[in-house]
Amino acid sequence: MKKKGKIVIFDSHEDIPRQILSKEWIPFFIRKFISFSYTKYEKFILKQLDAIVTVNQDIASRLVQYNKRTYVVSNYPVFRNNVERSSVMERTIGFAGNIKQEYMHENILIALTNLGNVRYLLAGNAEEGYLKQLQTFKGWDFVDFYGRISKEKVLLLYDKVAIGMAIHDYTLNVGGKKGGLGFIKNFEYMEAGIPLICTDFDIWKEIVEEYYCGICVNPHDVNSITGAIQYLIDNPVIARKMGDNGRRAVKEKFNWETQEEILLQLYDSL
User: Fold this and answer.
1) What is the pLDDT of residue 179?
2) If you average pLDDT over residues 44-53, what whole number do you get?
């Protein structure tokens, strides 16, 4: 496209070299070679493009070495003015999205077994093998599984759940323990006024503690996950305050309108 005189912008939501290193389906002994080769190719191509857009500063700090016109446009949700939390079901947690192992569903199911009386409203795509694996857990008895649903139905699900679950493993493609802002799920919960339980990534712990909008846990610590769910269920006033705080944070800062302006300014400059 550049050869035809077109303006080309590279949009990167993932740290692809790190992501390659974490792909278990790629034989371990060649992952580094593939990651290295991609990095060299990426550098060669990106130098020629008009701009780069990515979702967080960690990825941007790497890509700006190849192209100085690198911009951070975070993946924040559109803020809705008409959100109501009048149909919340007590003793419920929820998740909507791609149902993958890195979202630690096994540990959530074990936590549900420990709790014994909490429902998990779960929606999204899942590989058949992984879904069957989850269904072998005792905690699956507490799951209401909806499969893949529309965006409109996701919002209706969010209206029901008392707690939003966003527990992701410390994988390389999200920066390990540091984490990143590419998790729109966290911001979706906040926008919907839902208190969240999320991974104690450094970047997310800072946000959650600053705005007091949820609880951060070690994704491998089932007791911490269990305790966080129990605490929010036992303290509905605090949970409601956390949800309100998260919604206010999105309204004031973590909304798409603030990022749209950056993107439009970039377009105007090209």
Assistant:
1) 84
2) 94
pLDDT at 244 over 70: yes
Between vectors from CA 12 to CA 10 and to CA 15, what angle results, nearest 5°?
135
Dump pLDDT digits (tens) for 137-184: 999 999 999 999 999 999 999 999 999 999 999 987 777 888 877 778
Domain 92-252: what homologous superfamily? Glycogen Phosphorylase B; (3.40.50.2000)
The whole-angstrom separation of Cα 137 and Cα 116 is: 13
- Tell me the domain boundaries of the chain: 2-76+255-269, 92-252
Mean pLDDT (whole number) for 37-65? 92
Instruction: Name which residue leads in pLDDT, 183 or 10.
Output: 10
Question: What residues pair up with 120 in beta bridges, in sequence order?
Answer: 93, 143
Pair 111, 95: CB distance under 8 Å: no
17-44 burial string, b = 16+ CB within 10 Å, else e?
bbebbbeeeeeeeeeeeebeeeeeebee
51/69 Cα distance (integer angstroms): 5
